[in-house]
Amino acid sequence: MSQHSHSSSQAGSHQAIPHHADSYQLEVSRWTAGRNVLVFAALLGILGCVAGYFTNPARLFQSYMVAFAYTTFIGLGAFFFVMVQFLTGSAWSVTMRRIMENIMITLPVGLILFIPVVLGLSEIYPWTNPQLMNSDAVLRGKAGYLSQYAFVLRTVVYFLLWSLWAGSIYRQSTKQDTERSIKQMHIASKWSAPGLFLAVAIGTMASYDWLMSLEPKWFSTIFGLVMLTGGALSFFSVVTLVCLGFRRAGILKNSITQEHYHDLGKWLLALTAFYTYVAFSQYMLIWYANLPEETIWYRHRMEGSWLPISLAMPFLRFLIPFFVLLCRPAKRSLKVIGFIAVWSLIVEYIDLYWIVMPTYYKTGPEPHWLDLATLVTTVSVCGLVFWSRFRKHKMVPVGDLRFEQSLHFENA
Hints:
By secondary structure, this protein is an all-alpha fold. The protein has one domain (about 25-390). Helix content is about 75%, strand content about 0%. The chain contains 19 helices and no strands. The chain has helices spanning about 1-15, 30-55, 55-90, 95-105, 110-115, 115-120, 120-125, 130-135, 135-140, 150-180, 180-210, 225-250, 260-290, 290-300, 305-325, 330, 335-355, 370-390, 405. Helix 4 (about 95-105) crosses helix 18 (about 370-390). The longest helix has about 30 residues, at about 55-90. The radius of gyration is 23 Å and the shape is globular.
C-alpha cells in the first residue's frame, strides 16, 4: 500500500513539471551582453565606412550595395514566411515564430540603411550619367523610369508599405501574448493575405530597381523571383543558426526540439532546390532566345576571373547543399543543418557579389576591406533591431492557441 502511494506520489510529481520548462523571457544579463557585442560591431563597421568614404568613396558605395541587398532580402524572406504561417494556421513553427517575426521587423530599418545608397547613386548606377542615357536609344526610352527622383521615391514607398504591414502583424502577435485570444490570429491573417502580394510584387520591383538596373539595358522577367528566393533561403539559414545558438546557450532547448530542426532542414533543402530551378530557368531562357541585350549579362560574368566563380556556382548553390541534405538523418543532424545554414549565407553573399561587382570590375573580383566593413555595418544594425525585441517581448508567442501543439510536434 505504501509502495503504491509512493509510486502515485512520484507520478504526480512528474506530471507537475512540464517537459518544456523553458524560460520565455531572456535574462537581462544575456540580453545586455548580446546588445554590447552588436553595438561594438556596429561602431566598428560604421567607423570603417566613414574611413572608406574619405579614402575610396566609389568602392564604399559599391560594396555597400551588396551588403544592403543582402540584409534587406533576408528581411523580406522573413516577412513572406511569417505571413504564410498566419494564413495556413501553421502549428509546427509556432515556437520559432517570434524569432522569425523579430527578423521580419528589421525591414523598417532598411529605409535608414538606404540613405548611403542615395548618397552614392552616381557611384553605383551607370544610368545616373546623363551622357550615357542620351547616347543610347534604348536607355533614352527608360529615362522616365530610371531617374534619381523616381528611384528614391519608389524605394521610400516600398519600405513604408512593408513597414506598415510588418508592424501591424507584429503588434497583433505580441498583443496575443497577454490577450491569449483568437482575435489577434484573425487580424494577422487579414493583414497577411494582401501582405503576400506586397512581399512578392513589390519585392520584385525592388529587385529590378536596386540590382537589375545596375546594367540598365539588361532585363529578365524572372530576376525578382531569383532574388526573393535567395533571400528566403538566407532567412531560414539565419533562423536555424539563431535557434542553434540559443540551444547552445541553454535557451529554448526544450521548446525547439529536434523535430523543429528537422523541418528547418526540409526548408533549407526545398529552397535550395527551388532557387536552382528559378536561376536555371532564367539562364536557360536567355541562352535559348540568344538575344544580345539579354546574353550580355552572362557574358560579363564569364570574363577574366569571373568565369571560375560562374562555373563554381552550380556546385556551391545546388549540388553540395542539396546532396548533403537529401537523406533524412542529415536533416535531423544539428551539426549538418548548422553547417549548411552557414554555407548558404556565405554563398548568398558570393552570389550577390557576383551580381553587383561585374558592373564595375570587368576582368574579375577585386576584394576590398570595405566589403567586410559594409557587411558588418548592415548586419549588426539589423541585428540590434532583432535583438532589441527580446528585451520587451517574450521569446516565443506564448499566447498563440497552437503553442502547445507546436511543443509536441513530431515529423511523420
